[in-house]
Specification:
single chain; 514 residues; Flavocytochrome C3, Chain A, domain 1; Methane Monooxygenase Hydroxylase, Chain G, domain 1; five-stranded parallel sheet; 15 helices; 23 strands; globular
Length: 514
Amino acid sequence: MTRPVLIIGAGIAGLWAALKLAPRKVVLLTGSPLGEGAASSWAQGGVSAALAEDDSPGLHARDTIEAGAGLVDAGAAHALARGAAQQVRELAALGAPFEREGDAWSLSREAAHSRHRVARVTGDGAGAAIMQTLIAAVRAAGHVEIHDGWSAAALIPGDRGGCAGAMARSPDGEIHEVLAADTILAMGGAGGLFALTTTPAGAQGQAMAMAARLGATIQDPEFIQFHPTALNAGLDPAPLCTEALRGEGATLVDRSGHRFMKAIHRDAELAPRDVVARAVHRHNLAGRHALLDCSSAIGDAFPVRFPAVFAACMSAGIDPRIEPIPVAPTAHYHMGGVATDIDGQTSIPGLWAIGECASTGLHGANRLASNSLAEGLVSAARVAKVLSEAPLRPAARATSPASQGGHLPPALPPLALTRLRQAMSRYCGVERSGAGLDELSDMIADMIERHGEADALIAARFITAGAIARTESRGGHFRTDFPQADAVAQHTRLSLADLAGTNPRALAHTAPAE
């Protein structure tokens, strides 16, 4: 009997891969009930793709490479740019209601894009609308077996060093063995490790921890993208104020009404996200406050053009039609993750990773706006093509401990998780320093000693170790004690063995950017 392909995660990447793998048997673990708990549903801007007559995949790739601050893999950037438009067209044919202007696509322009190329749905509803379309299609697909609300607890090592599937926890708390010919991680990012995040709190870098336990390489874990304009109203998670607002002309002002970005970058509000995030952070830190003024650019059209942002603002007592929105940078996207090639293959036989939890080198040190949903779609299509065309190989047999239930990582108690999230935001946030990172590293080590090697602690340790080792500032990683970028851009590549018993300050970047 041929084992299925196991997909862990049901965001856009996981669902698109499940559909594309037809007619191969797929088992899909959703973590949360299908449609809940996936950051894809919250994505507002849209899908970046060269769909306009004045655009091209070459221009899209160029913008991606330029935004990534020297660390983008050119092959990954061109693969995304070549594939994105086709995936958008296929999604539209499936029923995703992208906006059109007659026969043309209605496209937004976002930060660091040289063209209008973001395919959108009702202004700020792309993620939710695409997810609804994909969920309906997956539920109707006969080759997909959905394990609704089942969460992966650990990967099962194979007897030849590969991956044989996963141990999964069902909604009733029981642990089950799910054996697979190939296992695809589509588990999202690590925003839930931070006190301020726009992502689901449950996204805590689990893919990094699980894959690393099998020996997989973790690449560039220190690069967290902080979205510059989340609603600063004390909410957890923080509602996102989409970059499309600034693309439509909204401006960033201080409490006196002064527009501060014009003096910081030639592109003002549409500067790369790391530049805008630091400016907003510093204004708030200095007590000058940062506010997003949409009154002239959007005004009375706000409820129709950007209904999700409008609803979030109104629920916080802010009418964005007539008053500026208080904003702050919050953890939004993880550029690093499980190292893979452009088809999603990890260094572990039978183990693949796609979407945000993977690191192909596409985003480098700073993700280009709206490349996230595009990456989810393109990476899903690529891994499905490889697995569909490859000859079936013998599946790895589970090693004895795993097949008997094995040792599962402990859960981190809620109070300890809160402490970790606060410390990560304080010491590993928009601006970092060696002293703060050392303190954070020591705290994580103490927590591991007390609570065990919980996934959240292992993931936080990778991020912190990478940040300590990178003694420069580049993209989303800014060190106040090393504010300049090194002359040569290098990737950070770490394994679990690299962290064991090693002072993170002694780790070095091991691979130059290609």
